[in-house]
Amino acid sequence: MKLQLQITSLNFEITDIIKEQIREKVEKLDNFYSHIMRCRVVIEVPHRHKHKGMLYDIHIYMTVPGGEIVIKREPDEDIYVAIRDAFDAALRKLEDYARKQRGDTKRHEEIPPAMVSAIFPDKGYGFITTLDGREIYFHENSVLNNEFKLLKVGAEVHFAEEQGEKGPQASTVRIIGK
């Protein structure tokens, strides 16, 4: 880390053991991604619940090249669990950030459109013809958002294909540009 770690506690006194645990967790983050410029950890006890006792709220603010990563987790009764969960989330966000920096983000293949070639509204099913000429069966329950009644022959759709008992079938059908 290029700048010093800042640990702040609000509404309670933080112990040296907790500070040391936070330093160790920040060091692990720094070992994973060495371009962290600043890290600020805020531990807060927002209010005391009569039935739940003290809840610890952990916020982590990391300044990285090109932005800031902010971690805000649900409060927990156990401060060590709250710290662990917050730093686990911080590591996941840093991994995502590093992946984007390297250009390793996943690119989802565009699903080619298909066309409804036959529909039997009274029986609750129809057929889709793909761009390569294959005919795929679909049931009305496979059409997203209960839009089976909106389908007409010639409508463009995207679909997910799976193997059914009698051959290929569409497991989800989504109408394109309603």
Task: Provide the descriptors you would attach to this structure in a database record.
Double Stranded RNA Binding Domain, alpha+beta, 2 domains, 5-stranded mixed barrel, 178 residues, 4-stranded mixed sheet, single chain, 23% helix, OB fold (Dihydrolipoamide Acetyltransferase, E2P), elongated, 37% strand
Strand order across the largest sheet: 7-8-9-11-10
- Under CATH at level 1, the class of the largest domain stands as Alpha Beta
Task: Give the N-to-C terminal Cα separation.
Answer: 51 Å
**What is the mean pLDDT?**
87
The amount of helix comes to 10-25%
| Computed Rg | 26 Å
Count of individual helical segments = 2
Class based on secondary structure composition and strand pairing: alpha+beta
Describe the protein's topology.
Layout: E1 5-10, H1 16-32, E2 38-44, E3 48-49, E4 53-54, E5 57-64, E6 67-72, H2 79-102, E7 114-120, E8 125-129, E9 135-139, E10 156-164, E11 167-175
Parallel strand pairs: 1-2, 9-11
Antiparallel strand pairs: 2-5, 3-4, 5-6, 7-8, 7-10, 8-9, 10-11
Helix pairs in contact: 1-2
Model description:
The protein has two helices and eleven strands; from the N terminus they run E-H-E-E-E-E-E-H-E-E-E-E-E. The radius of gyration is 26 Å and the shape is elongated. The strands form three sheets. It has a five-stranded mixed beta barrel with strand order 7-8-9-11-10. The protein has a four-stranded mixed β-sheet with strand order 1-2-5-6, with helices on one face. Strand 5 and strand 6 form a beta hairpin. With 178 residues, it is of the alpha+beta class. The two termini are 51 Å apart. Helix 1 packs parallel to helix 2. The protein has helices at residues 16-32, 79-102; strands at residues 5-10, 38-44, 48-49, 53-54, 57-64, 67-72, 114-120, 125-129, 135-139, 156-164, 167-175.
